[in-house]
Amino acid sequence: MAEFICLYGKDSAAIVIKQPKRSPLFLRMIVLVFAMVCGLYICSVCLKQFSFQSSQLVPSPIRTRIHYPKPHTFNRSECGHNPVRFFAILSMQRSGSGWFETLLNSHDNVSSNGEIFSVLDRRKNVSSIVKTLDRVYNLDWFTSASKNECSAAIGFKWMLNQGLLDNHEEIVDYFNRRGVSAIFLFRRNPLRRMVSVLANSYDRYAKLLNGTHKSHVHSPEEADALSRYKPVLNSTSLIHDLQETESLAAKALEYFNTTRHMVVFYEDLITNRTRLEQVQEFLNIPVKNLSSRQVKIHRGDLSDHIKNWEDINKTLNGTEYEKFLRADY
């Protein structure tokens, strides 16, 4: 940078070297760069927090692909020329995936085969995962939901903690290569999901229904019996636990961003059944009225289902999660 040399009078022997004043433009550039860096950081933090409350039930623009499986275990006979779509329901435990799956399976031409990767051997490595997926999508996987010959859409449900995220690169590649459509099913209110998780975990050992554990029920009487148990939530780690749930969902969406997918919320399916029509349209199957015999267990206000409600209410009041205390459907 240039320097200014000043001489003070002809009799003065002093020579003073002064640094020039910094250009106002230079200072403005520094401020602008700093503001841009801060803005990018804030945006990245906001994206990672995953505001899926505002996500839309709109599928990605990638077109669905059709298949003509040739199973090894039976002959599709007259349905051999009927196309089949592949799908997977990606969700978390106690997010309504069981109920959602029974709705899909009430369709004449949909076979959703349950939580197949709950068995550890089927997901112990990528090879076992691919082998299992191939059996399902080749119509060689038999469950009570299998409609075999005339299935128009075949799939299953896959929990995020069952090897899905640990092997996401290979699974995304498989989905894109085989044309598997992903349906993400989440809950808008993760606090209700926590209650359901704890209550279901308790019943595994307590077996409140005549010594039998049931994750899903089909009568109001059974629902009332299970809902009498009120779990205690950890108020100390509550906010962190809610953040972890949101972060997990955000990570799943980020990993599977390149697949053909849609996001569905449990609460929306309950309050607006036209959402089911959108799901059927996403799968490219005839739109029909879908039904389920399952009965919701924890109905009504959350305060009726949490033993330490006062602690939870105090913990979340004044935070971004306060809305979950009163959210209902």
Write the layout of secondary structure elements.
Elements: E1 4-7, E2 15-18, H1 24-49, E3 85-91, H2 97-105, E4 110-112, H3 126-137, E5 153-155, E6 157-159, H4 160-164, H5 168-178, E7 180-186, H6 190-206, H7 220-227, H8 238-255, E8 261-265, H9 266-271, H10 274-282, H11 309-316
Parallel strand pairs: 3-5, 3-6, 3-7, 4-5, 7-8
Antiparallel strand pairs: 1-2
In short:
The chain has 329 residues and is an alpha/beta fold.
What does this structure look like?
The protein has 329 residues and is an alpha/beta fold. Helix content is 39%, strand content 11%. The protein is built from eleven helices and eight strands. Strands 3, 4, 5, 6, 7 and 8 form a six-stranded parallel beta sheet that branches. The longest helix has 26 residues, at 24-49. The relative contact order is 0.15. The model is unreliable at 1-18, 47-51 and 54-58 (pLDDT under 50).
Keywords for this entry:
globular; 329 residues; alpha/beta
> Portion of residues in helices?
25-40%
Number of strands: 8
What's the number of helices?
Answer: 11
Taken in chain order, the helices and strands follow as EEHEHEHEEHHEHHHEHHH
Proportion of strand residues: 5-15%
Structural class: alpha/beta
Query: Which residue ranges are poorly predicted, with pLDDT under 50 across at least 5 consecutive positions?
Result: 1-18, 47-51, 54-58
Q: Averaging pLDDT over every residue, what do you get?
A: 85
Ends apart, CA distance between termini: 67 Å
Largest sheet: 6 strands, parallel
Q: What sort of overall outline do the alpha carbons produce when their principal axes are compared? A: globular
Give Rg in angstroms.
Answer: 28 Å
